[in-house]
Structure formats: structure tokens, C-alpha cells
Amino acid sequence: MKTIIHPGLSRGHANHGWLDTYHTFSFADYFNKERIHFGALRVLNDDWVKGGAGFGRHPHDNMEIVTIMLEGELKHSDSMGHTQVLHENEVQAMSAGTGIFHSEVNNLPDKPVRLLQIWVFPEERDIVPRYEQKAFDPLQRQNQWQLLAGPDPQHGEMAIRQKAWFSRIDLSAGREMKYTLHDRLNGVYLFVMNGSVTFGEDQQLQTRDGAGIWETASLILKAQEFTELLAIEVPMWE
User: Fold this and answer.
1) Cα 5 → chain centroid
2) Burial of 112 (C-beta count, 10 Å sphere; 0-12/13-18/19+)
């Protein structure tokens, strides 16, 4: 098993007043040649957006974009004709494909919104853009993996145009849980939203730490305290 650890405090950071954002991988003005991507995982942004503020209309293409809502409300509008509001415990999956324009604005004037936005390289370029949004019951991730998105939806997860799987779990203190990769040639990136967890030979991750793990079929995770964890499994390449 190979691993790479990204402490939360080592991430790129920018505070624009209306936006306080952390970048696990190179993004915008943050560049680190050692932190371009992890396999097909290209972007993992941890965003706080001030009430009433947001990202104006901007383009994307040839990227799978998954947005995980942590707090507040986010209004999304796009060139495909969607205008919808995302709430806590909702997830958005969007294939940018041949190209889209969209905006993302805090829907509440006086409360912040917190979200994770994740970009994954697609398996195939220039596909027809698509949009999906779904609420996920937090009770269904208590000490069990809750699948949010995958390439062949069969259990209520959303579709993503890559052999990638997004899974979330809330682990009670002291609980152990196994993560088995869907494809042994893949890697998995762990991101600790809150809490503390160990894996491998006593490697520990704290709140907002990340770890890329590959060349293994599975791993055992143990929560040191109540822990909210995201696992992003992706194809690996240089």
C-alpha cells in the first residue's frame, strides 16, 4: 500500500472576504507542482461563501463536477436550463462535457454556505452535458458507507461519467470500518470533514486532512472520535 498525506494546513488558501477557500490541489492562484491531481481527481475545494455572495456565470468543459453541501443553501443556474437550490445533505453531480455556463450563489442573505466542490477528469471527452441533484439521508451513513455517486448507479447513487465512486460515512468513536476498492487498480482519496481517523500502520488524519492511498485492495479505518469522512475512489495515472 502506498500513501500520500496532505495535512489540512498545507492546502492552498485564499480569503476574498466573500469567499474563504482552501485548495487541496493546485487551483486558481495556488500552484504546487507536487499537488496537481491524485489520479483522475483534479480539484478538491473547501469553500465558505458569505451570505448573498457567490460565483457569477462562468464556463466549464470536460470535467465531472460533484458538489457536496455541508451547510446553508446554494442557488445554481446553468445554460442547460436548470435553476435549483441545494441544501445541506444534498449533492450535485454535473457532467460539463462539451461545455456549460453556470452560476453558484448563496441563497441566504445573512447566513454563510459551506460546501466541497470536487472535479474528476471524465472517462470520455466531449459528451453531452448533464445535471443531477439528490438529497441523502444522514441516518443512512451512520457507521456504514453511503454511496453518493458512481459510474453505474444501482443503489440510489448519482451517475458520474468516470469509473469513480464517492462515498461518505459518519463513524462513531472507536468504530472500525473497512473500505474495499471497486477496482484494485484504482486509488482512494480520504478527506476528513470532521474528527480523527487512523488507517494503515497507525497513520492518523485529523479534521480537513486528506490522504491518497493506492496499490491496495482495501483498508481498515478506525475513528478516534466521532468522524465524518469522504472517500473518493478514482482511476490512477501519472
Assistant:
1) 17
2) middle
User: Where along the chain do its domains lie?
Assistant: 11-135, 138-235
Q: Are 231 and 192 in contact (CB under 8 A)?
A: no
Domain 11-135 CATH assignment equals 2.60.40.10: no
The answer to whether 114 and 47 are in contact (CB under 8 A) is yes
What is the model's pTM? 0.97
Instruction: Dump pLDDT digits (tens) for 145-155.
Output: 999 999 998 88
Is the domain covering 138-235 a CATH 3.30.70.2860 domain? Answer: no
Question: How far apart (Å, rounded) are the C-alpha atoms in residues 157 and 113?
Answer: 24
Among residues 73, 55, 32, 69, which one has the least CA distance to residue 230?
69
